[in-house]
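Re: beginner question about structure tokens

> Can someone show what the tokenized structure looks like for a real chain? I only ever see the sequence side.

Sure, here's an example I had lying around. Input first:
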Amino acid sequence: PLAQDIINRCYTTPGLNNTECDRIARNTAGQVVRFDQLLENLAKIETSGVDLTTRYNLETGLGDLEFDWAASYLSEYVETTNTGFKDDRTGTINGVLLNIESFPRWRSRLAASLSKNDWQVTLKHRYIHSAKAGSLAPSPPEIHDEVDAMHYFDLSAAYQYDNMRFIVGIENLSDQKPEYISEASVTSSNVYDWIGRYYFARIKMNF
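And the corresponding structure tokens:
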């Protein structure tokens, strides 16, 4: 491991309670007398959880109604570095520049679609459980170290004409935005809708 990585992991842990600190030894004058950078083949990822999916169709006087639900529960996600340092990321969001990772306990996507003739209207609900920012030093009051559970609603309408499909819609109807946390870039997160509400139109063609 790089010397700077060892130092960062040791001194950013509250109370210096980190196995990486054992690699650094000082004498009574506070001078570093030993710095262990030996490599160890200890890296691994331990994860477990449950995925759920279900679909239900119903014929009504207004058209065919379909419900499609997918959810996942994360019970554990622990990364062990090649130096033996364990990082429990369960229920956290972590990021360095453009490398954003999120490990919320629950995620869910529920879609309800009503179809009749060549028309289809779809309402979606996306849910992301609350998450804490991982491995952070204390932040200023205006910067949060936790993101609340998020609920997003998306609405779209589609029309099929011959081999073309026209789609218009609104993503994030209620314009929900999570708190800003210093661990994740506002403009690069692929986990949360930082942009807020936005509109779209698409055309699909089959050849």
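Each token stands for a local structural state, so reading them left to right follows the chain. Residues 138 and 165 are 50 Å apart (CA to CA).
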